[in-house]
Amino acid sequence: MAAIDLARSHIERCLQDVWDVDRVVPDADGDYCYRIGTAACYFGLDGHEPVLVKAVACAVLGVKKSAKLLDEINAINQRCRSAHVYWDNGTVLVEQSLFAETVDRASLSHAGQSVGHIADDIGQMIVAVFGGRTPIDGVDLAG
């Protein structure tokens, strides 16, 4: 069995325990989706060696890149302990990577909660100041 297949099986089992469900089903991209507040979140696998588990949360959609936005993102990154925030093609994302072979329930839960709460915390502020909308219950405040 390939390392990616072993990692997927392990991650699914951990998510079943963390989310207290009998089964988790990946979406069409192979990701495991969830939400925290206004943030759309997912766990995904990066199959390159070493295999990584990525916890990703979308904070804002449809926001234009500007020097001031990138300055704000940089300031947020200076305060983040284990996750990083970045702008990608109109989207502000929060991401944390873990080595798949070291993941356990606690580290997976922590990474998922961390990126989700950061995205939820910064999403509405970015929308209010720079435009765009949050992915869940989105509000377009800056037009």
Q: Could you estimate the helical fraction of the residues in percent? A: 25-40%
Instruction: Report the sheet with the most strands, covering strand number, pairing sense and barrel closure.
Output: 5 strands, antiparallel
The whole-number mean of residue pLDDT values reads 94
Counted by DSSP, the helix tally is 3
SSE order in H/E notation? HEEEHEEH
In the predicted model, the low-confidence regions spanning at least 5 consecutive residues are none
Radius of gyration: 16 Å
Question: Helices and strands: which structural class?
Answer: alpha+beta
Number of strands: 5
What sort of overall outline do the alpha carbons produce when their principal axes are compared?
elongated
N-to-C CA distance: 50 Å
What percentage of amino acids are in beta strands?
25-35%
- Spatial sequence of strands, sheet with the most strands: 1-2-3-5-4
What keyword list fits this structure?
5 strands, 3 helices, elongated, 143 residues
Fold and architecture overview:
The chain is α+β, with helices and mostly antiparallel strands and 143 residues long. Helices cover 39% and strands 25% of the residues. The chain has three helices and five strands, in the order αβββαββα. A five-stranded antiparallel sheet has the order 1-2-3-5-4. The longest helix has 26 residues. The mean pLDDT is 94.
